[in-house]
Specification:
single chain; alpha/beta; Rossmann fold; GMP Synthetase, Chain A, domain 3; 3 domains; 5-stranded parallel beta sheet; 14 helices; globular; binds xanthosine-5'-monophosphate
């Protein structure tokens, strides 16, 4: 039985971070919403449970809570921030509202000989972010941490292995916070730390073989990290019973089609079909300027092309998708309004009948997917690729899309990427690309007047792609990039740098 830590999500922003911290200790972790029932928890059979934070107060109407039977399961629990306050509230302690929010890195003093804090110095710098606080301990609990302004910054029932901390051990602003997670997972929950990517790959291949047997499997390959790794995993498991369909919609970056063909097209163990659908897509996009319309047309057209290719192959039992864990978590809790209709090239065609969808990477975070890719022998170039949206360059060309504009953008974007790499900035910037604006402006080249396009450069730093700040690329590098683009790409005579964060802007322009 795989050792697991269950993370119960009460709505805090760090839920995925906590899950990752646990996995960094080589222990598998899963996030579930707070509505999870006791019988579901028993089925998961976790070695330990972590309650996340949540910005609200436990006294708020409909504040997220859980069944207090959870404390009787004999499973160690660590409550973080709101998670600690909820434990106090449900177990007979008291929570009060402070007049002022305590926020920032604070000195926290730990009580001696507490297994959760083994190996840490006291005081330790920890990130506090709360207004409510535990004012009275629940029965059989003792105080294990305090700050100058928060008398109960941590508590525990050592006999039952129930712990609460008011600070956030999962963030880097808490010094040695990962040691606290390690102590909880290894010393308190007694996990050995057996979750390793090489074991994952071996087990997955074995599992896929046993499930699929000699049936046929189809994979929509976009050339992105997730679908490439999923395809490689399937190929390792079932070889020639896998067919990969790669739809070239003509909106990929310069060199990208060749790269995908080189990786998959030349392999004797994979059936690879490249569909040249450039004309079809361009025809459908003719005259379209509205961003959402562009996205919808591309999503729909992709499915049509995919369907018509798949129907030529006869009966297919399984479809592979490169869904990864953040997709599962985000769609499971799904609270946000639609800002953009995201389209993943691995999207499910509704009209094709498959026996089942296979999502071999649905338990993994992006960095784990990358590790699996490396285990499977994919090139570092492919595995470390930055994200690229399904609708491709269509949403980086403002206004109508034409062949000429696609070529301009491909060339300019290539130069941008080349220079970023040359200046060794590619490892530090999360995503960087060029956008062809629909603005023309006057310039002067030699002695000639020009009236040509303005190109925008976008580069961002982010962990989660939900918020982002613009990258502080040195001016000298921007200067080189701008000079090269204007000199080498015809019809671009001006380059600007996007200095907006997300929010209020989004990462892509459309
Ligand atoms: P935004 O523009 O929403 O982008 O701030 C957030 C991240 O998502 C990528 N993105 C997409 N990815 N299909 C995808 O697979 C899409 O339709 C899509 N639109 C945006 C974007 O590149 C960024 O990494």
């Amino acid at each position: 039985m795989q050792e697991k830590i269950l993370i119960i999500d009460f709505g805090g922003q760090y839920n995925q971070l906590i899950a990752r911290r646990v996995r960094e200790k080589n222990v598998y972790s899963e996030i579930h919403p707070y509505t999870i029932t006791i019988s579901e928890i028993k089925k998961i059979n976790p070695r330990g449970i972590i309650f996340t934070g949540e910005p609200a107060s436990i006294y708020k109407k409909d504040a997220p809570s859980c069944d207090s039977e959870i404390f009787e399961l004999g499973i160690p629990i660590l409550g973080i921030c709101y998670g600690m306050q909820l434990m106090a509230h449900l177990l007979g302690g008291e929570v009060k509202r402070a007049s002022k929010r305590e926020y920032g890195q604070m000195k926290v003093e730990f009580a001696p000989d507490i297994p959760l804090f083994a190996g840490l110095n006291s005081p330790n710098i920890c990130l506090m972010s709360h207004t409510d606080y535990v004012s009275k301990l629940p029965n059989d609990f003792k105080k294990i941490a305090k700050t100058e302004s928060c008398e109960i910054a941590g508590f525990a029932n050592l006999k039952k292995n129930l712990y609460g901390v008011q600070f956030h051990p999962e963030v880097i602003h808490t010094k040695n916070g990962e040691k606290i997670i390690d102590n909880f997972v290894k010393n308190i929950c007694h996990c050995q730390g057996l979750w390793k990517m090489e074991t994952f790959v071996q087990n997955k291949i074995f599992e896929l073989r046993a499930k699929i047997k000699d049936k046929k499997v189809l994979c929509a390959l976009s050339g992105g990290v997730d679908s490439s790794v999923a395809a490689s995993l399937l190929s390792a498991a079932i070889g020639a019973n896998l067919t990969c369909i790669f739809v070239d919609h003509g909106l990929l970056r310069k060199g990208e089609v060749e790269e995908v063909v080189q990786t998959f097209g030349n392999r004797s163990d994979v059936n690879f079909i490249k569909v040249d659908a450039k004309e079809r897509f361009l025809e459908k996009l003719k005259g379209v300027t509205d961003p959402e319309k562009k996205r919808k047309i591309i999503g729909e057209e992709f499915i049509r092309v995919f369907e018509s290719e798949a129907s030529k192959l006869g009966t297919i039992d399984y479809l592979v998708q490169g869904t990864i864990y953040p997709d599962v978590v985000e769609s499971g809790i799904g609270k946000s309004s639609v800002i953009k209709s995201h389209h993943n090239v691995g999207g499910l065609p509704e009209n094709i009948k498959f026996k089942e969808i296979i999502e071999p990477l649905r338990e993994l975070f992006k960095d784990e997917v990358r590790q699996v890719g490396i285990e499977l022998g994919l090139s570092l170039n492919l595995v470390n690729r930055q994200p690229f949206p399904g609708p491709g360059l269509a949403i980086r060309i403002i206004g109508e899309i034409t062949n000429e504009k696609i070529a301009l953008l491909q060339d300019a974007d290539y130069i941008f990427r080349e220079e970023i790499k040359k200046h060794h900035l590619d490892k530090n910037i999360s995503q960087y690309f060029a956008v062809l604006t629909n603005i023309k402006s006057v310039g002067v080249m030699g002695d000639e007047r020009t009236y040509d396009y303005m190109l925008a450069l976008r580069a961002i730093d982010t962990n989660d792609f939900m918020t982002a700040s613009f990258s502080k690329i040195p001016y000298e590098v921007l200067e080189v990039i701008s000079k090269r683009i204007v000199n080498e790409v015809n019809h671009i005579n001006r380059v600007v740098y996007d200095i907006t964060s997300k929010p209020p802007a989004t990462i892509e322009w459309e």
